[in-house]
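In this notebook, the sequence line spells out the residues, with the fold written below as integer tokens. This is how one looks.
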Amino acid sequence: MRPFNQTFTILLVDDREENLISLQEILEAPDRKFLKAHSGNEALKMALKNEDIGLIMLDVQMPDLDGFEVASILKSNPRTRDISIIFVTAISTELNNVLKGYAHGAVDYLQKPLHIAVTQSKVKVFQDLYFYQQQLKETIELKDKINKQLERFMFMVAHDLKSPLAGVVGLLQLMKDDDRITSSDELLDYMKLMLEASNHLINMIGSILEYSRQNQKDQSIEEFDVHELVAEMARLLFPPSHIHIGFDNRLPSIRTKKLKLQQVFQNLLTNSIKYIDKPVGEISIGHREEGDFYNFYVKDNGAGIPKEARQKIFNLFETAGHASKRDTSTGVGLNIMKMHVEEQGGKINVESTPGEGSTFYFQWLKRMS
């Protein structure tokens, strides 16, 4: 990842040397670097050679290429089109001239003779914006890097689990036909349930492997019944007998990336089951419509989450740190879930009262195209 540059580079463009010197003196600051071009052609060459330029102060009236032409060329090139341009001009800033400048890619105007305080203030605004954009870019690159690491981790874990689990299924198939099993209806039912759960896990692992191999853009979008998906998932999580999982309303059918939505619900249900500390556990699932989104929720009467932990639990490797029981969480699941929700424009949040329980809400697009 390219390191964030803490120096703001400004390209000054004017065919008169005294104007360049004067402008640099006005804008001089410890965290700024200046490049100077005496013509439009020279400015274009410098802009292509120096990828750290954050702002161009561009004179409009120049002999070879005027400022409008230079700005138009810069905006047409993918390497330079995002550089902010301020026109410095002695031309009247009547509406026609201003509109012409904006049409060619200017973001602001400065009228000659320059007002020192106004010039300094405007440049400071663009400098702050540039640093913010660089920090945002760095954050996105870091997020992408972490995502790739997590996908590699998922692939390795899924790959290592698939073979021994397939062996378990093979043994269960052999045991299912054993006379000692077939002679007992109760044992036979348990065996069928174990086989069903094991096959479900194999299918899930296969999906994870496929997910890890593909790009996010290549993930298949399909229409399916969310209620059936979650009901089946809740059954195969084998909650203890004192925990009841129910629905407040029927969940909708949806067109989306199935594996990702499945991962979100599975993570929430698993956590709810894990942290219920009451003699009778209640988990309820429901939804309501909010414009282009469904707002799903999973509510439990478990241990709850302390106020200071409610935001950090969505960070990578952060956990709620429940003191009441041995917490083996890695802090990865909720972070992956948050990324799945946010990448399609949704939001996730939690409401919780320690000792009474928690409700996780997340938005999911009704239909992906």
About this structure: The mean pLDDT is 82.
